[in-house]
Amino acid sequence: MYARQVTIANQEGFHVRPAQLFADKAAEFEAEIKVKAADGEADAKSMLELMTLGLEKGSAITIEADGADAQEAADALAGLVESKFGED
Amino acid sequence: MDARTMQGIGVSDGIRIGPAFLYRPHGETAARTAGQPGPGEETPRLGEEEAARETKRLEAARDASVAAYDALIERAKLTVGEQQAAILVGQQRLLTDKAFYPPIAKLVAEERLPAEAAVRQVVEQVAGKFERLASDYMRERAADIRDIGGRLLGELTGEGAGQLASLTEQVILIADDLAPSDTVQLDKNVVLAFVTRKGGKTSHTAILSRSLGIAAVVGAGNALDEIQDGDLLIVDGAAGVCHVRPDEATVAEYRTRMEEEARRLEQLAAFREAPAASRDGKRIEVAVNIGTVKEAEAAADSGAEGVGLYRTEFLFMHSDHLPTEEEQADAYTQVAELWGGRPVIIRTLDIGGDKALPYLPLAKEENPFLGYRAIRIGLDRPELLRTQLRAILRASAHGKLRVMFPMISSLSEWRRAKAMLEEAKAELDREGVAFDRGIEAGIMVEIPAAAMQADSFAREVDFFSIGTNDLVQYTLAVDRMNEQIAHLYDYFHPAVLLLIRRVIVAAHRAGKWTGMCGGMAGDPLAAPLLLGFGLDEWSMDVSSINRIKETVSRLDSAECTALADRLLEEATPEDVRRELKAYVDGL
Q: Of the CATH numbers 1.10.274.10, 3.40.109.10, 3.40.50.880, 3.90.1150.30, which one belongs to the domain with range B46-160?
């Protein structure tokens, strides 16, 4: 298992578009990926579960990946969060 | 029944008078009852065979809903634009999300619930989760979930969602809540306005109603229960008011206001064709700010004389890879051709600060607005800027393009950027590629240092364009995103005004011209000052053009010069604002 901690940096948090980008990116990997936050956890491949975590700017999350491409997956997803999803 | 007045939240301006139409969304009538247990009854369980049939029905409804979204998305792209259509793309994605559809299918297959009951159960469960979240935005997403569920139910019952699209008489729509997928179907010639029980200012529906030009009041609450089909209504979108069964005097009053509103818009529209000039005949150039080829197309007939700011970062942000020279040249050529010889100022890539690119990771910074952004990135990673400059030059053969460098703080930065432009020209020459040899190059003035050195810059650049949004932020040390200090952010601060005048005067002394592409250029209150300073080119959002032309047509340039000189002596932003207001109101 491989884990990365990141802080949500974009203004909106996990609104529709960021959640969609995140889930779609996660779906590119074989690994099982979880997003853990203060108020619960979500399947990284589910846009819906990600949104209902209510993550806002400044929320800390842990991305936990398990599987052959775990490290690659967690790094890619952490990079996406850090890039602020290309938000305005 | 008596006349009533209801107060909600006005989200889209306009006064409309018409009969009420109570909208019961897809699936809410038949589907709400089909398969729904009566009070005290348990939902009946299905037999094994029935459950298998039900699963097939559910799958068919899912596929039909996905296809219906495809059509809605295409339509939305045409009527409300790519950005708003993204709302529906998100809904379509949620419909097939692993936390939405599979649980419904499981309830049917394993719990043997009828499909409708399964949809309803999951929708309520998920919508409930959103309703418990902290932010308004997330709570409003519950409406998106119900919209998706309603669509599935509509397909299951065969009712579809044709109700709104088949309206022919002009009506004012009354609904519990309008889903974005409902809203995009509305035709403003049929649906004059809508009023909803729920909803807030930031809902997708509110945003869509403004794009569509439909007057709207949301969050009017349970008072709406008193409205019946066919009741006469008056909706005042700006005030957030809905009058139900108004008396004749009220109707007459609003008819007059509607006529005034129409006259005002018509008067403004008359300015579209006219070149912008003051009462005494001083010409100014009115231009438009754009970010995409689509916007360039939409604004081509707006009465703008050119594009004062083409923000190229959207081209980069909407791509999943660094756009190639070909891709960039293609976009810039399209814009140049659409504007057929009218000048288009292309700003080179302005990322960093609050704008990032997924494929170009930038380190996290303590002070991103004072950090690695715009031309600083372009000079540090010359391959990026070089590619863009080559693309701009290639496109310059197809129209009248100008190049503008953002975030210039010193002459050395400008000289390096200009040298790269000259290198790109030399390369294209060697390759035998055509471009406009007379292409003008200028800088965006948004850092006080550049404004202070305007005289030195004016000797070397072809033009200036003042970016007031950042100039104010950097001059006053006010983060424009920080709501706590938002009141300090004011372009009427005398220090900002002194810098603006300094830039314009320096340009004129060197025989050059100055434009402005920040929010200030589109503010009618600022018009007397900017005219008085002698600003040459005013670039703004497309919606401000007619109003600015109209304001300027009522101004006298000599009087404004005297006024501007006097206002620079004022001590505070509030003083400047007050004097300007008095002046404009007295015209």
A: 1.10.274.10
Mutation for B interface: A17, A48, A82, most B CBs within 10 A: A48
ipTM score of complex? 0.91
B322 interfaces chain A, CB cutoff of 8 Å: no
| DSSP single-letter state for residue B349 | -
Instruction: Identify the residue whose tokens are 């031309």.
Output: B375
CB pairs below 8 Å between A and B: how many?
A: 76
C-alpha separations of B353 from A57, B439, B517 in Å: 16, 29, 18
- Residue B70 CA to residue A22 CA, distance in Å, equals 22
Q: For A33, list phi and psi in degrees, rounded to 5.
A: -130, 130
Contact in structure between B454 and B501 (CB atoms under 8 Å): no
3-state secondary structure of B2: coil
The partner residues of B285 in beta bridges, in order of sequence, read B537
Which of the following is catalytic: A2, A3, A13, A15?
Answer: A15
In B32-117, beta strands by DSSP E: none
User: Is A15 tagged catalytic?
Assistant: yes
- CATH number for the domain harbouring residue A71: 3.30.1340.10
- Report the CATH superfamily, name and number, of domain B282-585: Phosphoenolpyruvate-binding domains (3.20.20.60)
Residue B148 identity: I
Does the distance separating the beta carbons of A47 and B94 come in below 8 Å?
A: yes
Given 3.50.30.10, 3.30.565.10, 3.90.226.10, 3.30.70.80, which CATH number is that of B168-268? 3.50.30.10
Q: How far apart are CA B290 and CA B130, in angstroms?
A: 35
CA-closest candidate to residue A20, choices A12, B203, B112: A12
CA distance B62 to B40: 30
| pLDDT of chain B, 587 residues: tens digit per residue | 678 899 988 888 889 999 998 887 644 443 334 445 544 456 667 888 888 899 999 999 999 889 888 888 887 777 777 777 888 889 999 999 999 999 999 999 999 999 999 999 999 999 999 988 888 888 888 888 988 998 888 888 766 555 676 677 899 999 888 876 777 778 778 899 999 988 776 566 776 787 677 899 998 888 888 898 889 999 999 889 999 999 999 999 999 999 998 888 888 888 888 889 999 999 999 999 988 887 788 788 889 999 999 999 878 877 778 999 999 999 999 999 999 999 999 999 998 876 677 788 788 888 888 999 999 999 999 999 999 999 999 999 999 999 999 999 999 999 999 999 999 999 999 999 999 999 999 999 999 999 999 999 999 999 999 999 899 999 999 987 666 777 888 999 999 999 999 999 999 999 999 999 988 999 999 999 999 999 999 999 887 899 899 999 999 999 999 999 999 998 899 999 999 999 998 88
Q: Do B355 and A87 touch (CB under 8 A)?
A: yes
| Interface contact A88-B94, CB threshold 8 A | no
Residue of A nearest to B91 (CA): A16
DSSP labels, B464-532: EEE-HHHHHHHHHT--TT-GGGGGG--TT-HHHHHHHHHHHHHHHHTT-EEEE-SGGGG-GGGHHHHHH
Beta carbons of B413 and B356 less than 8 angstroms apart: no
Contact between A64 and A1 under an 8 Å Cβ cutoff? The reply is yes
Given CB atoms, is A88 within the 8 Å cutoff of chain B? yes
